[in-house]
Structures are given as structure tokens and as C-alpha cells.
Amino acid sequence: MARYRDAKCKLCRRAGEKLFLKGDRCYSNKCAIEKRNFPPGQHGKARARKSSKYNMQLREKQKLRQHYGLLERQFRNYFEKAATTKGVTGTTLLQLLERRLDNVVYRLGFTTSRAQARQLIRHSHFEVNGKKVSIPSYLCGPGDRVAPRGKSKDLFIIKESIKNVDARQAVPYLDLDTNKLEGTFVEIPGRDVIPVPIEEQLIVELYSK
């Protein structure tokens, strides 16, 4: 399967902001943005950022795609689905991405990054409504219960992540029961509560050309 293999911190530096791709490291002073907030490469400091309309649209698309860890074709498929769904295309796109199981597992605090969530899901460590799900792109809906399976609740990765869940940003459309180690997808979120600093209209304009 194709995947990005270069340093993830380069993506954040290229975007000029944190994309939270490295788990707890992103919340510490070790984050690359804290030390080198300029594009990667030999001439990173001197390189001027282009500000054409197309460049801004492309950068927003790349930021959102990398934020959720998707390949180009995956991202385009989500956009096409959002475009054919009733409602505001940009908002619908974000809602679809937030409903992905790997994102829900990450947002609930079971893992420190979406990449880590994808790995655990693929290895069948999570279930939805009591049934094993090993597909990271599985779309959760209102009322769905997400939890580690059986012995997976004792995994060191999950236990340590839950300990530090308060340090990360909670969202109102997910509810976590730390005693049962179970989370619930409460409702489809509105744009105002999705904590992604993206101008999604620029992405709509890019794909609408």
C-alpha cells in the first residue's frame, strides 16, 4: 500500500502550522514548528511563499489531506461524495473525514495520532457496537460505540494515551467513558465544532475548476 515515508515534521513546516502528525511530540517543545517554523530544504528560510489564488487553494487541500493522513485518490473520493450529498460541500467533506474510524479513535484519546490509530485498527484491536472492525475508513454514525476489544484494553499504548487525554482537545460530538474504556459518537458535528483550521471553501473552488 502506498504511504508517505518521509519525515512527518516536514509536512507541518511546509504547511506553516501544526498538523498533529507525531502524537504527544506535537504538544511538547520538541515539535519542529517550535524550533524551525520555516519550509524544509536548504533555502527554506529564504524561500518566499507564493500567494497566488491557485497556490492558496492547493495548500489548503494539501493541509487537510495530510491532516487526516489520506492519499490523493482517497481524498478526491471523499470530495466527490461530499459534492453529491445535499448540504454545503465543504462542511460535508469535513464531516465525512471526522466520521472515519481512525479519526474517532484518535479524537477519543485511545491513541496519540491518527497513524497510530490506523495501525491498531488494521490489527483488529477495536470494535464498533461490539463487532470487530479492521477498516480505518469505516464511517461512524450517531450512537455508534467504539472501544478496544477484549485484551486490547490492556495495551500499553492505549493506557498511556488515555492518561494524557486531557492534554488534547476534546470535541463535543464524542463522549468518552474512561471507566468502561468506551467512546460514543454522539452526533454528526457542525462546522463550528470541528477543530480543523482550514478554509474548506478554497478546496471546493480548487476541485470545481
CATH architecture of the largest domain: Orthogonal Bundle
Principal-axis shape: globular
Largest sheet: 5 strands, antiparallel
Quickly give the structural class: alpha+beta
Percent of residues in helices: 25-40%
How would you spell out the order of helices and strands?
Answer: HHHHHHHEEEHEEH
In the CATH hierarchy, what is the class of the largest domain? Mainly Alpha
- The DSSP helix count reads 9
How would you write the strand order of the largest sheet?
A: 2-1-3-5-4
Index terms:
single chain; about 210 residues; alpha+beta; Ribosomal Protein S4 Delta 41, Chain A, domain 1; Structural Genomics Hypothetical 15.5 Kd Protein In mrcA-pckA Intergenic Region, Chain A; 2 domains; 5-stranded antiparallel beta sheet; 5 strands; about 40% helix; about 10% strand; globular
Word description of this protein:
The protein has 209 residues and is of the alpha+beta class. It has two domains: 8-97 and 196-207, Orthogonal Bundle (Ribosomal Protein S4 Delta 41, Chain A, domain 1), CATH 1.10.1050; 100-191, RNA-binding S4 domain (Structural Genomics Hypothetical 15.5 Kd Protein In mrcA-pckA Intergenic Region, Chain A, Roll), CATH 3.10.290. 40% of the residues lie in helices and 8% in strands. It is built from nine helices and five strands; from the N terminus they run H-H-H-H-H-H-H-E-E-E-H-E-E-H. The chain has helices at residues 8-15, 32-35, 53-67, 72-83, 89-99, 101-108, 114-122, 156-163, 200-207, and strands spanning 126-128, 131-132, 145-148, 174-177, 182-185. Strands 2-1-3-5-4 form a five-stranded antiparallel β-sheet, with helices on one face. Strand 4 (174-177) and strand 5 (182-185) form a beta hairpin. Helix 3 (53-67) crosses helix 9 (200-207), helix 4 crosses helix 5 (89-99) and helix 5 (89-99) packs across helix 9 (200-207). It is globular.
